[in-house]
Amino acid sequence: MARSPSGKTARYSLARNGTPPSKQELAEADIILLLVSPDFIASDYIWKYEIAGAMERHERREATVVPIIVRPCDWQDMPFAKVQSLPRNAKPVTQYANQDEAWLEVVQGIKRVVEG
């Protein structure tokens, strides 16, 4: 669990050693970050185990899905396309001249979700 400066807590799960979060971790997460790239979109695992459940929980307001556009790819027709993405204007992180600036926007956006 993490505590934001506003005092709110959020459960989170990170992939460990390349191992995706378990179904239980995804089912308990308050915020689900999608690191969107061509590899992410091409992953059978993502589509089989993560996207449908994440989007269902988002629609029921049990969790907040946050797509982070890391690399250019055709994601605009994906189920998560209707969700506010990061960085600003859905510009892929790798297309910023200064990628640190892009990641700062991502961090600030996640903070707003946690504090919101």
Beta fraction of the residues? 5-15%
Strand segment tally: 4
CATH topology term: Rossmann fold
Written as H for each helix and E for each strand, in order along the chain, the element string is EEHEHHEH
Most strands sheet: 2 strands, antiparallel
Give the second-level CATH assignment, the architecture.
3-Layer(aba) Sandwich
Give the terminus-to-terminus CA distance. 16 Å
The percent of residues in helical segments reads 25-40%
Structural class: alpha+beta
Q: What is the general shape?
A: globular
Query: Rg to the nearest angstrom?
Result: 14 Å
Strand arrangement across the biggest beta sheet: 1-2
Low-confidence stretches: 1-14
Tally of discrete structural domains: 1
Give the overall pLDDT as a whole number. 85
What is the top-level CATH class? Alpha Beta
Counted by DSSP, the helix tally is: 4
Describe the structure.
The chain is α+β, with helices and mostly antiparallel strands and about 120 residues long. It has one domain: 3-Layer(aba) Sandwich (Rossmann fold). About 40% of the residues lie in helices and about 15% in strands. The protein contains 4 helices and 4 strands, in the order ββαβααβα. The strands form 2 sheets. A two-stranded antiparallel ribbon has the order 1-2. It has a two-stranded parallel sheet with strand order 3-4. Strand 1 and strand 2 (about 10) form a beta hairpin. The radius of gyration is 14 Å and the shape is globular. The two termini are about 15 Å apart.
